[in-house]
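Protein modeling request. Please complete all fields; requests missing the sequence field cannot be processed.
Requester role: graduate student
Desired output: 3D structure, token encoding
Chains: 1
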Amino acid sequence: MLKEFRAFAIKGNVIDMAVGIVIGAAFGTIVSSFVADILMPVVGLLTGGLDFSNEFAVLRAGTMAGPYPTTAAAAEAGAVTLNYGAFITNVVSFIIVAFAIFIVVKGMNSMKKKEEEAPAAPPEPSRSEALLEEIRDALRSKDGS
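Delivered output (145 residues):
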């Protein structure tokens, strides 16, 4: 069983998949930062200063009475909140990642299609055909000399 697992783990596809997961995690971090630090402040500016990261609705007040300025303050007070602003931010992140993956897959499919459309090289002659060609060439060279 250990040998089977080793053979499976050493296959190129598994290593490619692991590299893809690591790069995908790093890409996800970059996209999250892009959305939270660059895109959402611009959206907030366009919507009159609305900060989506701290948009929430209090479902049940905590031990300290509200209003709560941030989700962190509400959580500290023990309030139950519906954090729809964080959800909106995550949806935007997902859309950006999904679009980037779509572009990559579309590019890969385009390259595959071009590769398939390229004319295939003629097949190599079989051993017997190659020998017959050599005999033919030898006979021609004798007749021509």
